[in-house]
């Protein structure tokens, strides 16, 4: 059961307070009219006495005794008094109900007008994402409490945007600066291992260092791609997603064969607007992950169509449903955090999600019925 909205509550308060004020006004008006109207018995006695004195005869001789005349006149005046008060009450009640209905209508409209800035703030907050902090309210109006709230919210967004941009620049710059020493380190290890007089122990150590260096290079390259996609796209070109996917499948055929995994494709023509390099990296990460986290004799199914634009399914170990959302976070894998798996850097699905968002789409995943994972990428048409 959902609660009442603020607009409904304000309207109820407006209507209720107006109805209460109207009831008080009707009661006061009723009491004033009641006290103003003369007493029937007194008016009747005064009128009969005045008639006797004026004509020098008893008015009662016409209709009977003076007491009868007083009672008849008093009854007529009492009936008139009751009719007047009843008419006043009925008319006031009808006017009160009609005016209360108008008050509720105008209260609803005024509450909506007063709360409109809050709806703008809520809409802006819902549209915010880590990579899209360019939304602002820019509320115009008098310097009241709502204007102050909107300006405070805009100021907070400015600070958040600056913080995120600074973080992205740092990641990109740090990743770029680390590529050179890693490349130098790899070259020195390869030169040392090329020496024919190197001992088996040193060769084993060099092989291990090369694997570690290769993993570090993959992680640095992934961070650079992630930082680039998080900054958004500066230019877009039409990209045939089916052709990019076919190229990636051909490039990973050797790895799939070595892992004993069969790759099946169904590629329909699909054109999207975006960056061909980033889109190729998105497809590569999905296909490589599907091959890597699989089982011998397993399968990978890659499909390109209208909606979703890309879907990659694979067999493999069972993935708990509660672990699926964390797979899109950097350095996260099923059953481990930053350590325990040296095959990849743990940035694959993070890059997929970031690239999809940079192209105006999104990526989602769900576990397969008999193991493995199904990842779908939805992209807007070109």
UniProtKB/TrEMBL annotation:
Q: Could you tell me what this protein is called?
A: histidine kinase
* Keyword set, alphabetical order: Kinase, Membrane, Phosphoprotein, Transferase, Transmembrane, Transmembrane helix, Two-component regulatory system
Return the PANTHER family for the record.
SENSOR HISTIDINE KINASE CUSS, SENSOR HISTIDINE KINASE YKOH
Organism expressing this protein natively: Amycolatopsis australiensis
The terms under GO molecular function for this entry are: phosphorelay sensor kinase activity
Which residue ranges does UniProt annotate as crossing the membrane? 12-33, 85-111
Q: Which reaction does it catalyse?
A: ATP + protein L-histidine = ADP + protein N-phospho-L-histidine
As recorded in UniProt, its EC number(s) are: 2.7.13.3
Q: Which residues form the Histidine kinase domain?
A: 173-382
Q: Where in the cell is it found?
A: Cell membrane; Membrane
Q: How does it sit in the membrane?
A: Multi-pass membrane protein
Provide the residue span(s) of the region labelled Disordered: 362-382
């Amino acid at each position: 059961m959902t609660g009442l909205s603020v607009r409904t509550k304000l309207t109820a308060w407006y209507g209720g307070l107006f109805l209460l004020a109207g009831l008080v006004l009707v009661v006061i008006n009723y009491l004033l009219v009641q006290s103003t109207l003369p007493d029937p018995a007194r008016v009747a006695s005064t009128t009969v006495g005045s008639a006797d004195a004026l004509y020098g005869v008893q008015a009662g001789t016409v209709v009977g005794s003076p007491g009868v005349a007083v009672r008849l006149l008093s009854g007529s005046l009492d009936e008139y008094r009751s009719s007047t008060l009843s008419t006043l009450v009925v008319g006031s009640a009808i006017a009160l109900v009609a005016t209360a209905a108008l008050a509720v209508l105008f209260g609803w409209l005024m509450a909506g007008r007063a709360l409109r800035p809050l709806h703008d703030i809520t809409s802006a907050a819902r549209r915010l994402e880590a990579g899209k902090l360019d939304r602002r309210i820019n509320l115009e109006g008098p310097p009241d409490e709502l204007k102050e709230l909107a300006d405070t919210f805009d100021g907070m967004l400015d600070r958040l945007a600056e913080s995120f941009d600074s973080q992205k620049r740092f990641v990109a710059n740090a990743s770029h600066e680390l590529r050179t020493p890693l490349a130098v380190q790899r070259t020195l290890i390869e030169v040392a291992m090329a020496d024919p007089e190197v001992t088996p122990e040193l060769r084993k150590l060099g092989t291990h260092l090369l694997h570690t260096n290769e993993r570090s290079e993959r992680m640095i390259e992934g961070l650079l791609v992630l930082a680039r996609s998080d900054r958004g796209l500066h230019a877009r070109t039409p990209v045939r997603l089916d052709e990019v996917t076919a190229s990636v499948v051909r490039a990973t055929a050797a790895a799939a064969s070595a892992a004993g995994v069969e790759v099946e494709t169904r590629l329909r023509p699909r054109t999207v607007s975006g960056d061909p390099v980033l889109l190729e990296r998105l497809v590569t990460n999905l296909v490589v992950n599907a091959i890597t986290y699989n089982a011998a004799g397993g399968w990978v199914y890659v499909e390109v169509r209208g909606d979703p634009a890309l879907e990659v399914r694979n067999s493999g170990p069972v993935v708990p449903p509660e672990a699926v959302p964390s797979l899109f976070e950097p350095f996260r894998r099923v059953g481990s955090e930053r350590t325990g798996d040296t095959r990849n850097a743990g940035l694959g699905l993070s890059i997929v999600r970031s690239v999809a968002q940079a192209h105006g789409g999104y990526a989602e995943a769900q576990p397969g019925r008999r193991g493995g994972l199904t990842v779908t990428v939805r992209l807007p048409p070109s």
